[in-house]
Amino acid sequence: MTEPVLDRLTALFEADRDHARAVAMRAYMRDQFAFLGIMSPRQRELARQATAGTPRPTEADLLALAGACWARPEREYQYFACAYLRKHAGVLSAGALPAVRGLITTKPWWDTVDVLAARVVGPMVNQHAALIPEMDAWIADDDIWVIRTALLHQLFYKAATDTDRLFGYCARQAAHSDFFVRKAIGWALREYAKTDPAAVRSFVEATPLSGLSRREALKNL
User: CA-to-CA distance for 192 and 118, rounded, in angstroms?
Assistant: First the structure.
């Protein structure tokens, strides 16, 4: 189903291309990616049109379509792939994790990585316990986006959060110098504070976090 969906999506996206808006969107993303200039609500509308009437995708369909979208220069195609993977994350087996990691580490920035971390990898790990050791390995990785994914994969687990891992991961990378890692630590803690504020406060008070991580973690407490 990859080619028909991508062909339909391409025709719809091209018809909505807006050069002026694309320039502004590219500037906002620090000139790292080309854009078509299509705003998020319109992207979602066009995505629905492109996939209307198609059967539920298989894992092979999902990964092939995501790979094809990642090969396109314009960022809207990667946004489509992230949303489609998120919608059908339950289809992905544990064996799909290397392919998802490839998406995380290719053309990486927070706009795609965060969706893949919390809405794709998170559900995959929750569904396949065999992937938990992979997250233990990812938190020790050299790639900041892989580290960020490990930190954020439990972001929406709420009461099902493995707190030993959450706090252990945050402590392990507490001294990391990268902004995106420090921000992820704070974000993961802030989100879990909605479930157990006392535990987060105790962890923050006992752990030498960066100022950024600390501020983010305690923002709503």
Answer: 13
Give the residue among 190, 175, 113 at the shortest CA–CA distance from 148: 113
In 3D space, the residue among 72, 159, 150, 142 whose CA is nearest the CA of residue 114 turns out to be 150
- Asked if 77 and 14 count as a contact pair (C-beta separation under 8 A), the reply is no
Q: pTM score, two decimals?
A: 0.96
Beta-carbon contacts of 124 under 8 Å, excluding residues fewer than 6 positions away, are 89, 92, 94, 96, 97, 100, 131
State the burial class of residue 4 (Cβ atoms within 10 Å of its Cβ: 0-12, 13-18, 19+): exposed
pLDDT tens-digit readout, 140-196: 999 999 999 999 999 999 999 999 999 999 999 999 999 999 999 999 999 999 999
Confidence of residue 46 (pLDDT cuts 50, 70, 90): very high
Rg (the chain; Cα; Å):
18
d(CA 58, CA 62): 6
Tokens of 104: 């995380």
Question: What is the spatial distance between Cα 29 and Cα 149, in angstroms, rounded to a whole number?
Answer: 20
Question: What pLDDT digit, counting tens, does each position of 70-109 carry?
Answer: 999 999 999 999 999 999 999 999 999 999 999 999 999 9
Structure tokens at 60: 């092979």
Query: How wide is the angle at C-alpha 156 spanned by C-alphas 212 and 26, nearest 5°?
Result: 60
Q: Cβ–Cβ contacts within 10 Å for residue 21, how many?
A: 15
**Judging by beta carbons within 10 Å of its beta carbon (0-12, 13-18, 19+), is residue 147 exposed, middle or buried?**
buried
